[in-house]
Amino acid sequence: MRFTQYTRYEGHRADALNLEALLERLADFLLQSGFPGYPGDPESQQRSLEALRAALLRALLESGQLTPDMIEPLRGQGEGDPEAQDALADLLDRLVQRLVEEGYLSLQAAPRLPDTHQALRTGRVDDARTAARQVRFSLTDKGLDFLGYRTLRNLLSALGRASFGAHDTPHLATGVEAEAASRPYAFGDTLNLDLPATLTHALGRGGLRPDGTIDLDYPDLHVHQADYRSSCATVLLLDTSHSMILYGEDRFTPAKKVALALTHLIRTQYPGDTLRVVLFGDRAEEIPLARLAHAQVGPYHTNTAEGLRLARRLLLQQAKDMRQIVMITDGKPSAITLPDGRLYKNSMGLDPLVLRATFREVALCRKAGIVINTFMLARDPHLVAFVGRVCELARGRAYFTTTMTLGQYVMRDYLRRKTRRAG
Fold first, then answer.
1. Regarding predicted confidence, which is higher, 332 or 278?
2. What's the pLDDT band for 197 if we cut at 50, 70, 90?
3. Is 74 in contact with 89 (CB distance < 8 Å)?
4. Which pLDDT tens digit goes with each residue over 302-331?
5. Is the peptide bond before 196 cis (omega within 30 degrees of 0)?
6. Where are the domains of the chain?
7. For a designed S-S bond to 377, which of 47, 90, 254, 330 qualifies (C-beta 3.0 to 4.6 A apart)?
């Protein structure tokens, strides 16, 4: 008789940690929005492997998976228990490796991860940190999608809804699912025949022929009706002016989370919808979702007019039932692009020239059937007056919100818009 000998599996401690929960705790760090030099480190250092390891330490400590006594050896710059130092450094290296192997992060500028625990064992802590600073990380598409999913899940649970299906409108259209009474066929309808109604109508008109056949003609054809599902094109217009990270509050990172959540919602629940992202500061530019994690605010003014112009152009390129602009801002317009391409700016805001150009773009959006809904992250009286005028011209809505409630307001407005009558 043959016997099989089993040995105890000694896995790595990092493999037992919940990587997705840890990644969710790192969301603010991974999506940080300050321009280089804010709040103190240049972007290259904020995106370095050393910064990632420090963020992992904080996340582990805050989650209770590591105690302060366990983390202290790494903060001692080579002092303390060498064995504990080695174990913690190895844990961090393994966590980073798992994030890379599972496709959430990618690393650049190094053929392999610097061996931090080996450097600590030999006392070359500075060498390990220098190497870590030279390696930069970035979120992958999978990482962005994961953060969008988690943000969306949290937002929907805050709204008190478990899930959302396709958005329905009062219109009826022919389709595969029979959800209403059938009607006579019209050219262009999906030929989803209601056979009983079709045959009944034919028999009522001409009866049964002597040979047992039925005289079927076009007026006899009836098709099933299903709820018409509208399609919506949305441009998320994000303010990147310097005020979005001033006054001790990062207002841009929550806006990026909203963009990721909306993207995930549209991709999984409403594939007929589209979402484009436009940043506006001194200038306006569309960015792909893959660049959203690295988007930053800067020492910019607020060129709302150019942002609206670009958003309108993008929306008019799409044949959708509904077109809307979701604008997130915390400041009144303070700049416009002149016909010759130069930037005209007035830091005080509410400059008559700037306002006229901005309201002209708002009026053009309304003429094109584009709704503008504005989410204000500040309550400055001048901003309130400006947004009130925008709503009046564009027949949109304005919301006073905070970074804590921004996502809930945007999501609720998007879903409410999707249940309204198209056009």
1. 278
2. confident
3. yes
4. 999 999 999 999 999 998 888 999 999 988
5. no
6. 13-139, 146-166+230-418, 171-229
7. 330
Global pTM exceeds 0.90 = no
Residue with tokens 């530019």: 285
Beta-bridge mates of residue 198: none
Q: Which amino acid, one-letter code, is at 51?
A: A
- Return the top range by mean pLDDT from 113-127, 155-169, 381-395: 381-395
3-state secondary structure the chain: CCCCCCCCCCCCHHHHCCHHHHHHHCHHHHCCCCCCCCCCCCHHHHCEHHHHHHHHHHHHHHHCCCCHHHHHHHHCCCCCCHHHHHHHHHHHHHHHHHHHHCCCEEEECCCCCCCHHHHHHCCCHHHHHHHHHCCEEEECHHHHHHHHHHHHHHHHHHHCCCCCCCCEEEEEEECCCCCEEEEECCCCCCCCECHHHHHHHHHHHHCECCCCCECCCHHHCEEEEEEEECCEEEEEEEECCHHHHCCCCCCHHHHHHHHHHHHHHHHHHCCCCEEEEEEECCCEEEECHHHHHHCCCCCCCCCHHHHHHHHHHHHHCCCCCEEEEEEEECCCCCEEECCCCCEEECCCCCCHHHHHHHHHHHHHHHHCCEEEEEEECCCCHHHHHHHHHHHHHHCCCEEECCCCCHHHHHHHHHHHHHCCCCC
- Cα(136)–Cα(291) distance, rounded to whole angstroms? 15
Q: Quote the CA–CA distance of 197 and 156 in Å, as a whole number.
A: 42
pLDDT of residue 40: 41
Mean pLDDT of 52-58: 84
Torsion of CA 52, 53, 54, 58, to 10 degrees: 100
- Kindly state the average pLDDT of the residues 20-35: 81
* pLDDT tens, residue by residue, 199-210: 888 888 878 878
Is residue 316 within 8 A of residue 308, CB to CB? The reply is: no
pLDDT higher than threshold 80 for residue 46: no
Amino acid symbol at 179: E
Angle at 236 between CA 235 and CA 237, to 5 degrees: 105
